[in-house]
Amino acid sequence: MSTDAEIAEPSDADAATLSILIVDNDEPHASAVAESLERVGYHCRVATSGPAGAELVEKGSVDLVITDLMMPEVDGLAILRRAKESLPEVEVILVTGHGTVPSAVAAMQQGAFNYLLKPLDIEHLRTVVEKAAEALRLKRDNVELHRRLDEKFGFEGVIGSSPQMNAVIEKLRRIAPTDATVLIQGATGTGKELVAQAIHHNSPRTNKPFVALNCAALSENILESELFGHVKGAFTDASADRVGKFEFANGGTLFLDEVGDMPLPTQIKLLRVLENGEITRVGSNNPIKVNVRLLSATNRDLEQSLADGSFRRDLYHRLKVVSVQLPKLSERSQDIPLLIDYFMKQFAQRHNKTIKSMATAARRRLMAFDWPGNVRQLRNTIESMVVVDVDGVLSLDDLPDEFTEPGEVAADGDGTTLRGLVGRPLVELEKQFVAETLNFTGGNREEAARLLGIGERTLYRKIKEYRLY
């Protein structure tokens, strides 16, 4: 059991065990409630003031909150509101020694799981907590079921629960079963090819080829050969007939990435294919019928390209029968925790590593980052952390160098050089080391004191001295 002086977050509880936060300015009562629940296997933390409880709630990693109703500064209803805003799945039980019908009604209307009167009957409390645990298990089972359905039907790479991504996924579900051409727009790294794959795998063409081609990486002549194929002798080095992407994707889906960079002469030939369903290999006069669904993507502003004449308006409208706009990661930051967990599992399996969790400080650093490279940059960052990790917990020291803040301890080259420490007061460095050690141990004072080589009483004095609550 921890007190409100310790605000470091523990690892997320699994579906079978609740992480319980008890908020009550009556410290003996809060401790008694925590001990009674810990005896039956729950992990409890105690906050002995409303503000301390609100701070813990806003930092996350809480499944159930048991809070007193009547507290100064921040009361139980305020804790309830903050919990529901910060953690949509969390359950909240309100406890009061001054129960009234209006307060009970207000609590239930705002989403409280239950409303209990002091003095608490411990067995009744345990029963209510077990019901809350079952409610949470049902919620999580439902989320897991939806995740598995998404994996089965091809949306496993499109991850997010933000309003922006929910709208994208809903649109994909509507358009995937059709044969409409789709233009996917978004900044570099937002996952345009993943969306194209999701559309294909959730379409009637799912058992046919999905073929991708980056238009920006090729010269005009090579691009046309890649798209339409060529016959032997069509140009220098054309030593044999070659099937192009359209033929290879016949019956399936062709995804043209960075279509905004396609040269104008190739745009004309692509338009002709879309209009009559025929391609002609470079160097040949014989048309070949193809049945291909075309998906395309670009990070360019095609409206501007239309205005400056670098992209054909008629082709633009043929490509944009339906459009999907992908948000930047900074515009859907609430999806970052989901993406972190997804990539941790993915890369732990790929690199045969055991990764138990990510330290709260590292999560906080990732959440605060602007992510100019979007999901791709986050994905690469998590893979890097998994690869270099040695203790099974992804922490600040596993982050790439660009995430190191000024004055922070970091390794250079052989890992022996410390940057940014010269010129800083010793007391400031001590405060930082104490704070980071507490964070590393998840708020475990005994372990933190052992790692720092000091006694627990000394550590407690330093926590108070440096106001590390």
Write the layout of secondary structure elements.
Blueprint: E1 19-23, H1 27-38, E2 43-47, H2 50-59, E3 64-68, H3 76-86, E4 91-96, H4 101-109, E5 114-117, H5 122-152, H6 163-175, E6 182-185, H7 192-201, E7 210-214, H8 220-228, H9 245-248, E8 253-257, H10 264-276, E9 278-280, E10 287-289, E11 293-298, H11 302-308, H12 313-319, E12 322-325, H13 336-350, E13 357-358, H14 360-368, H15 374-388, E14 393-394, H16 426-440, H17 445-452, H18 456-465
Parallel strand pairs: 1-2, 1-3, 3-4, 4-5, 6-11, 6-12, 7-8, 8-11, 13-14
Antiparallel strand pairs: 9-10
Helix pairs in contact: 2-3, 13-15, 16-17, 17-18
**Cross-sheet strand order for the largest sheet:** 2-1-3-4-5
Shape: elongated
The CATH H-level homologous superfamily of the largest domain: P-loop containing nucleotide triphosphate hydrolases
What is the end-to-end distance? 15 Å
- Rg for CA atoms: 29 Å
Strand residue content: 5-15%
What's the architecture of the largest domain, going by CATH? 3-Layer(aba) Sandwich
Q: What is the number of beta strands?
A: 14
